[in-house]
Amino acid sequence: MTNRCSPNALSHVLLSERSVRNLGIISSEVVGLLVELTLKKLEISVALIVPALVIAVALAAATAVSTNLQVKWPGDNPYVFAGTNGVNGTLSVSGTGVATIAPDRAKLSIGLFTEGFTAKEAVDKNAVIFDDILRALEEQGVSRDDITTSWYTIYPIYEYAGSRPVLVSYKVEHQISVVVFEQNLDSLGRKVGRVIDAAVGAGANQMYGMQFTVSDEKVRELKDQALASAVRDAARKAQLMAEALQVTIKGVISISESGGYWPPVPIYRSYTESAGTQVLPQMFEVTASVSVVYAIV
Protein backbone atom coordinates (compact mmCIF):
# COMPACT_ATOMS: atom_id res chain seq x y z
CA MET A 1 0.00 0.00 0.00
CA THR A 2 1.38 3.47 -0.95
CA ASN A 3 1.53 6.01 1.89
CA ARG A 4 0.82 9.57 0.83
CA CYS A 5 1.92 12.76 2.47
CA SER A 6 -0.56 15.37 3.50
CA PRO A 7 -0.97 18.56 1.41
CA ASN A 8 0.50 20.62 4.28
CA ALA A 9 3.68 18.50 4.28
CA LEU A 10 4.13 18.90 0.47
CA SER A 11 3.57 22.65 0.70
CA HIS A 12 6.25 22.78 3.37
CA VAL A 13 8.72 20.97 1.11
CA LEU A 14 7.97 23.23 -1.92
CA LEU A 15 8.30 26.36 0.15
CA SER A 16 11.62 25.17 1.49
CA GLU A 17 12.82 24.53 -2.09
CA ARG A 18 11.83 28.02 -3.29
CA SER A 19 13.44 29.62 -0.28
CA VAL A 20 16.74 27.90 -0.93
CA ARG A 21 16.63 28.82 -4.67
CA ASN A 22 15.86 32.46 -3.87
CA LEU A 23 18.81 32.63 -1.54
CA GLY A 24 21.05 31.33 -4.34
CA ILE A 25 23.17 29.49 -1.85
CA ILE A 26 23.24 25.97 -3.26
CA SER A 27 22.62 24.32 -6.63
CA SER A 28 19.39 22.78 -7.90
CA GLU A 29 20.89 19.26 -7.51
CA VAL A 30 21.37 19.80 -3.81
CA VAL A 31 17.88 21.17 -3.49
CA GLY A 32 16.45 18.08 -5.20
CA LEU A 33 18.34 15.82 -2.83
CA LEU A 34 16.95 17.66 0.19
CA VAL A 35 13.41 17.35 -1.11
CA GLU A 36 13.81 13.61 -1.69
CA LEU A 37 15.18 13.06 1.82
CA THR A 38 12.29 15.05 3.35
CA LEU A 39 9.69 12.99 1.49
CA LYS A 40 11.28 9.70 2.59
CA LYS A 41 11.23 10.92 6.20
CA LEU A 42 7.53 11.70 5.94
CA GLU A 43 6.79 8.25 4.45
CA ILE A 44 8.50 6.54 7.38
CA SER A 45 6.48 8.59 9.89
CA VAL A 46 3.20 7.71 8.16
CA ALA A 47 4.12 4.03 8.07
CA LEU A 48 4.60 4.05 11.85
CA ILE A 49 1.52 6.12 12.68
CA VAL A 50 -1.08 4.15 10.67
CA PRO A 51 -0.60 0.76 12.43
CA ALA A 52 -0.62 2.50 15.82
CA LEU A 53 -3.94 4.12 15.00
CA VAL A 54 -5.40 0.75 13.94
CA ILE A 55 -4.33 -0.83 17.25
CA ALA A 56 -5.79 2.06 19.26
CA VAL A 57 -9.15 1.78 17.50
CA ALA A 58 -9.26 -1.97 18.15
CA LEU A 59 -8.50 -1.49 21.85
CA ALA A 60 -11.20 1.16 22.15
CA ALA A 61 -13.76 -1.17 20.58
CA ALA A 62 -12.79 -3.99 22.95
CA THR A 63 -13.06 -1.68 25.95
CA ALA A 64 -16.57 -0.70 24.88
CA VAL A 65 -17.70 -4.31 25.35
CA SER A 66 -18.75 -5.18 28.90
CA THR A 67 -16.21 -7.37 30.71
CA ASN A 68 -19.00 -9.39 32.34
CA LEU A 69 -21.50 -11.64 30.66
CA GLN A 70 -24.87 -11.96 32.41
CA VAL A 71 -26.91 -15.05 31.62
CA LYS A 72 -30.40 -15.39 33.09
CA TRP A 73 -31.43 -18.97 33.56
CA PRO A 74 -35.06 -20.04 33.17
CA GLY A 75 -37.27 -20.67 36.19
CA ASP A 76 -35.89 -20.09 39.66
CA ASN A 77 -32.23 -20.74 38.80
CA PRO A 78 -29.81 -17.99 39.91
CA TYR A 79 -27.84 -15.67 37.68
CA VAL A 80 -24.44 -16.61 36.29
CA PHE A 81 -21.67 -14.05 35.96
CA ALA A 82 -18.70 -15.24 33.89
CA GLY A 83 -15.66 -13.22 32.85
CA THR A 84 -15.18 -12.82 29.10
CA ASN A 85 -11.40 -12.86 29.14
CA GLY A 86 -11.36 -16.66 29.27
CA VAL A 87 -9.11 -16.73 32.33
CA ASN A 88 -11.03 -15.68 35.43
CA GLY A 89 -14.74 -15.46 36.19
CA THR A 90 -17.34 -16.07 38.89
CA LEU A 91 -20.51 -18.10 39.16
CA SER A 92 -23.07 -17.04 41.78
CA VAL A 93 -25.69 -19.48 43.06
CA SER A 94 -28.08 -19.82 46.01
CA GLY A 95 -29.00 -22.95 47.91
CA THR A 96 -31.87 -23.88 50.23
CA GLY A 97 -32.04 -26.57 52.87
CA VAL A 98 -34.92 -27.86 54.98
CA ALA A 99 -34.93 -29.98 58.14
CA THR A 100 -38.11 -31.27 59.79
CA ILE A 101 -39.07 -33.03 63.00
CA ALA A 102 -42.29 -33.91 64.80
CA PRO A 103 -43.02 -31.25 67.45
CA ASP A 104 -43.20 -32.35 71.07
CA ARG A 105 -44.91 -29.29 72.54
CA ALA A 106 -47.47 -26.62 71.76
CA LYS A 107 -47.60 -23.04 73.01
CA LEU A 108 -51.14 -21.71 73.38
CA SER A 109 -52.12 -18.10 73.92
CA ILE A 110 -55.42 -17.93 75.83
CA GLY A 111 -57.19 -14.83 77.10
CA LEU A 112 -59.97 -13.70 79.42
CA PHE A 113 -62.01 -10.50 79.08
CA THR A 114 -64.18 -9.27 81.95
CA GLU A 115 -66.19 -6.06 82.33
CA GLY A 116 -67.62 -4.18 85.32
CA PHE A 117 -69.10 -0.81 86.22
CA THR A 118 -65.95 -0.10 88.21
CA ALA A 119 -62.37 -1.16 87.72
CA LYS A 120 -62.48 -3.24 90.93
CA GLU A 121 -65.56 -5.09 89.82
CA ALA A 122 -63.94 -5.96 86.50
CA VAL A 123 -60.74 -7.06 88.25
CA ASP A 124 -62.58 -9.22 90.80
CA LYS A 125 -64.58 -10.96 88.08
CA ASN A 126 -61.43 -11.66 86.11
CA ALA A 127 -59.63 -13.07 89.15
CA VAL A 128 -62.42 -15.50 90.00
CA ILE A 129 -62.69 -16.83 86.45
CA PHE A 130 -58.93 -17.02 86.09
CA ASP A 131 -58.71 -19.31 89.13
CA ASP A 132 -61.25 -21.58 87.50
CA ILE A 133 -59.18 -21.64 84.31
CA LEU A 134 -56.03 -22.60 86.22
CA ARG A 135 -57.77 -25.51 87.93
CA ALA A 136 -59.22 -26.71 84.63
CA LEU A 137 -55.79 -26.65 82.99
CA GLU A 138 -54.22 -28.56 85.85
CA GLU A 139 -56.90 -31.22 85.49
CA GLN A 140 -55.71 -31.70 81.92
CA GLY A 141 -52.17 -32.37 83.12
CA VAL A 142 -50.76 -28.88 82.56
CA SER A 143 -48.27 -27.86 85.24
CA ARG A 144 -48.45 -24.42 86.85
CA ASP A 145 -44.83 -23.97 85.77
CA ASP A 146 -46.01 -24.12 82.16
CA ILE A 147 -48.60 -21.34 82.60
CA THR A 148 -47.39 -17.74 82.52
CA THR A 149 -49.06 -14.34 82.19
CA SER A 150 -48.07 -12.58 78.98
CA TRP A 151 -50.49 -9.63 79.13
CA TYR A 152 -52.68 -7.93 81.72
CA THR A 153 -54.47 -4.62 81.21
CA ILE A 154 -57.32 -2.52 82.64
CA TYR A 155 -58.96 0.22 80.61
CA PRO A 156 -62.14 2.32 80.67
CA ILE A 157 -64.95 2.10 78.13
CA TYR A 158 -66.55 5.36 76.98
CA GLU A 159 -69.64 6.15 75.01
CA TYR A 160 -70.28 9.52 73.46
CA ALA A 161 -73.35 11.65 74.14
CA GLY A 162 -72.97 14.27 71.46
CA SER A 163 -69.40 15.48 71.73
CA ARG A 164 -68.89 14.54 75.39
CA PRO A 165 -67.42 11.13 76.41
CA VAL A 166 -69.30 9.31 79.15
CA LEU A 167 -67.63 6.56 81.20
CA VAL A 168 -69.81 3.43 81.12
CA SER A 169 -67.59 0.57 82.34
CA TYR A 170 -64.14 -0.94 82.76
CA LYS A 171 -62.62 -3.93 81.00
CA VAL A 172 -59.84 -6.24 82.15
CA GLU A 173 -57.86 -8.42 79.78
CA HIS A 174 -55.71 -11.25 81.11
CA GLN A 175 -53.68 -13.17 78.52
CA ILE A 176 -51.73 -16.30 79.44
CA SER A 177 -49.26 -18.58 77.66
CA VAL A 178 -49.79 -22.31 78.17
CA VAL A 179 -47.25 -24.97 77.12
CA VAL A 180 -48.57 -28.46 76.45
CA PHE A 181 -46.16 -31.42 76.12
CA GLU A 182 -46.71 -34.74 74.35
CA GLN A 183 -44.20 -36.93 72.47
CA ASN A 184 -46.59 -38.36 69.88
CA LEU A 185 -47.83 -35.96 67.20
CA ASP A 186 -51.43 -37.20 67.16
CA SER A 187 -51.56 -37.34 70.94
CA LEU A 188 -50.25 -33.78 71.09
CA GLY A 189 -53.06 -32.56 68.84
CA ARG A 190 -55.72 -34.30 70.92
CA LYS A 191 -54.31 -32.97 74.19
CA VAL A 192 -54.21 -29.42 72.84
CA GLY A 193 -57.88 -29.76 71.88
CA ARG A 194 -58.80 -30.91 75.38
CA VAL A 195 -56.85 -28.04 76.96
CA ILE A 196 -58.66 -25.50 74.81
CA ASP A 197 -62.04 -26.98 75.67
CA ALA A 198 -61.20 -27.02 79.38
CA ALA A 199 -60.07 -23.38 79.36
CA VAL A 200 -63.14 -22.21 77.45
CA GLY A 201 -65.41 -24.26 79.72
CA ALA A 202 -63.89 -22.54 82.75
CA GLY A 203 -64.52 -19.06 81.37
CA ALA A 204 -61.76 -18.19 78.86
CA ASN A 205 -63.23 -16.16 75.99
CA GLN A 206 -60.19 -15.31 73.86
CA MET A 207 -57.91 -17.58 71.82
CA TYR A 208 -54.99 -15.77 70.18
CA GLY A 209 -53.35 -18.75 68.48
CA MET A 210 -50.90 -21.59 69.02
CA GLN A 211 -47.44 -22.66 67.92
CA PHE A 212 -46.08 -26.20 67.66
CA THR A 213 -42.37 -26.37 68.39
CA VAL A 214 -39.48 -28.27 69.96
CA SER A 215 -36.77 -27.51 72.52
CA ASP A 216 -34.14 -24.84 71.83
CA GLU A 217 -31.50 -27.56 71.59
CA LYS A 218 -33.48 -29.35 68.90
CA VAL A 219 -33.96 -26.10 67.01
CA ARG A 220 -30.19 -25.55 66.92
CA GLU A 221 -29.62 -29.08 65.63
CA LEU A 222 -32.21 -28.59 62.90
CA LYS A 223 -30.66 -25.28 61.89
CA ASP A 224 -27.28 -26.98 61.45
CA GLN A 225 -28.84 -29.74 59.34
CA ALA A 226 -30.73 -27.25 57.17
CA LEU A 227 -27.61 -25.12 56.68
CA ALA A 228 -25.50 -28.10 55.58
CA SER A 229 -28.27 -29.12 53.18
CA ALA A 230 -28.39 -25.59 51.74
CA VAL A 231 -24.64 -25.64 51.04
CA ARG A 232 -24.95 -28.99 49.27
CA ASP A 233 -27.85 -27.64 47.22
CA ALA A 234 -25.76 -24.66 46.12
CA ALA A 235 -22.86 -26.93 45.15
CA ARG A 236 -25.17 -29.15 43.10
CA LYS A 237 -26.57 -26.16 41.19
CA ALA A 238 -23.09 -24.74 40.60
CA GLN A 239 -21.81 -28.01 39.15
CA LEU A 240 -24.83 -28.35 36.88
CA MET A 241 -24.45 -24.82 35.56
CA ALA A 242 -20.69 -25.11 35.13
CA GLU A 243 -21.15 -28.22 32.99
CA ALA A 244 -23.75 -26.43 30.87
CA LEU A 245 -21.39 -23.47 30.41
CA GLN A 246 -18.39 -25.75 29.77
CA VAL A 247 -16.33 -24.11 32.48
CA THR A 248 -14.46 -25.51 35.49
CA ILE A 249 -15.09 -24.61 39.12
CA LYS A 250 -11.79 -23.82 40.88
CA GLY A 251 -12.99 -22.86 44.38
CA VAL A 252 -15.24 -20.71 46.55
CA ILE A 253 -14.75 -16.96 46.62
CA SER A 254 -17.42 -16.15 49.21
CA ILE A 255 -20.42 -17.67 50.99
CA SER A 256 -23.11 -16.05 53.11
CA GLU A 257 -26.16 -17.26 55.00
CA SER A 258 -29.61 -15.75 54.65
CA GLY A 259 -33.18 -16.54 55.61
CA GLY A 260 -34.30 -18.36 58.73
CA TYR A 261 -36.94 -20.69 60.05
CA TRP A 262 -40.66 -20.23 60.46
CA PRO A 263 -42.41 -22.22 63.19
CA PRO A 264 -45.46 -24.05 61.88
CA VAL A 265 -49.07 -23.34 62.81
CA PRO A 266 -51.92 -25.81 63.04
CA ILE A 267 -53.13 -27.08 59.68
CA TYR A 268 -56.74 -27.24 60.76
CA ARG A 269 -59.00 -26.56 63.72
CA SER A 270 -62.67 -27.34 64.09
CA TYR A 271 -65.17 -26.99 66.91
CA THR A 272 -68.01 -29.45 67.49
CA GLU A 273 -70.36 -30.02 70.42
CA SER A 274 -69.83 -33.77 70.68
CA ALA A 275 -66.23 -34.44 69.76
CA GLY A 276 -64.70 -31.24 71.16
CA THR A 277 -61.95 -29.20 69.58
CA GLN A 278 -59.93 -31.03 66.91
CA VAL A 279 -56.37 -29.81 66.36
CA LEU A 280 -54.13 -31.26 63.65
CA PRO A 281 -50.51 -30.18 64.14
CA GLN A 282 -47.95 -30.28 61.37
CA MET A 283 -44.25 -31.09 61.34
CA PHE A 284 -41.86 -28.52 62.76
CA GLU A 285 -39.75 -27.16 59.90
CA VAL A 286 -36.48 -25.25 59.81
CA THR A 287 -35.16 -23.71 56.59
CA ALA A 288 -31.80 -22.17 55.72
CA SER A 289 -30.51 -20.37 52.64
CA VAL A 290 -27.00 -19.60 51.43
CA SER A 291 -25.48 -17.55 48.62
CA VAL A 292 -22.19 -18.82 47.18
CA VAL A 293 -19.81 -17.25 44.67
CA TYR A 294 -17.52 -19.74 42.90
CA ALA A 295 -14.36 -19.05 40.90
CA ILE A 296 -14.46 -20.53 37.40
CA VAL A 297 -12.09 -20.82 34.44
Give the strand line-up of the largest sheet. Answer: 5-6-4-7
The major sheet is characterized as: 4 strands, antiparallel
Helix content: 40-55%
The CATH class of the largest domain is Alpha Beta
Helix-strand sequence: HHEEEEHEEHEHEEEE
What is the H level of CATH, i.e. the homologous superfamily of the largest domain? Protein of unknown function (DUF541), domain 1
Q: What is the number of domains?
A: 3
Structure summary, number of beta strands: 11
CATH topology of the largest domain: the name is Translation Initiation Factor IF3
Question: Hey, roughly how much beta strand do the residues contain?
Answer: 25-35%
Top keywords for this entry?
single chain, 297 residues, alpha+beta, Translation Initiation Factor IF3, Alpha-Beta Plaits, 3 domains, three-stranded antiparallel beta sheet, 5 helices, 41% helix
Please characterize this protein's 3D structure.
With 297 residues, the chain is α+β, with helices and mostly antiparallel strands. The protein folds into three domains: 7-64; 68-101 and 218-296, Protein of unknown function (DUF541), domain 1 (Translation Initiation Factor IF3, 2-Layer Sandwich), CATH 3.30.110.170; 105-213, Alpha-Beta Plaits (2-Layer Sandwich), CATH 3.30.70. It is built from five helices and eleven strands. It has a four-stranded antiparallel sheet. Helix 1 (7-23) packs antiparallel against helix 2 and helix 3 runs antiparallel to helix 4 (185-202). The radius of gyration is 43 Å and the shape is elongated. The model is unreliable at 1-27, 44-87 and 267-273 (pLDDT under 50).
